[in-house]
Fold:
Amino acid sequence: MRGKPQAQPDFLTVINLNQSVPADHPLRAIKRRVDVVLQKLSPLFDELYAKDGAPSIPPEQLLKARVLTALYSVRSERLFCEQLGYNLLWLWFLDREFSEGSFDHSIFAKNYDRVLSADVAKLFFVEVYDLSRQEGWTSDEHFTADGTLIESWASLKSFVRKDGGDAAKVQSAKDEDPGNPTINFRGELRRNDTHQSATDPDSVLYRKASGKESRLCFGAHALMENRNGLCADFTLHNPIEQSEPVMALAQVDAHQQLHEGVKAKTVGADKGYHRKDFVNGCRERAIAPHAACKHHTKIAGLDGRTTTQPGYQMSLKIRKRVEEIFGWIKTVGGFRRSRYRGLERTQAWGYFVAGTYNLLRLARLGVA
Structure:
């Protein structure tokens, strides 16, 4: 007999969000670690808020919302708040009652300077990495460095002359088509020293390699520990002013100062780091430079005494795993292109995405 659909009647029920989530759900391991990290940051949150006045949305929920946004590839804060109202799993993760529902998306913008800034995001990322060290998943001696590009939230049409020489051309195009003006820059030489993006001035016109198209972007540099491929540092920079080898050495120095007991012995890298400044910088720090060598290029400090060692060959194999970090951050984490303007806000989101990647890796390592 064919069944017939019936309208859902109104009924009264009690929902226990914790019992609704399966005991073996992957988010449970992530939530447990996030709660430990946020508990350490709780004294900082006490200092950021006034003692009196109306209570705000707990800062822990805002930071957890960042983790969910990266985990589930949510493209915007508005869409996240829309889905939060009917997603029981997300409500449980944020420790919100079902009756509370969602909150307005403007909460993120209003709380950026307070609890979602780059400084707080960096503290969150550092605490997550410290937690991985406490659980024994990281190496304090062997690392890998690599860089990539993050597209800025700006069009090439916004890359105009700093002295305003293109103002008449741009305005004329906007008058003809305000929605999507056609601006022809063919034959003109556009360079970073004479031009700048009107949408995102912090971005630069840059290309990764010869034969690639130039785009408005930021440089992103990652430092990976070699034991389990966790992200030890993730920094955005100007790829023209700060080269990748320079960023690698700066990250190693900052990582050793930030985490007690870390003493780098090897740093693996691709052929782009087979340069004098990187090799000499590593030797000055008593670090073995495990960079892939270019053919027919000799650099003092990186010869057969290093390249014939078993550790060097192992570093060349492990260094490829840094691409897994970039792959996850750009595809799942949605960080192929920045969703914010400016280097500072983009860096803050980068810390949250990289920290979420580490949380996911810790959950999987714990299950394994």
About this structure: The CA atoms of residues 78 and 106 lie 8 Å apart. The chain has three domains: 17-114, 118-152+216-367, 156-198. The mean pLDDT is 90.
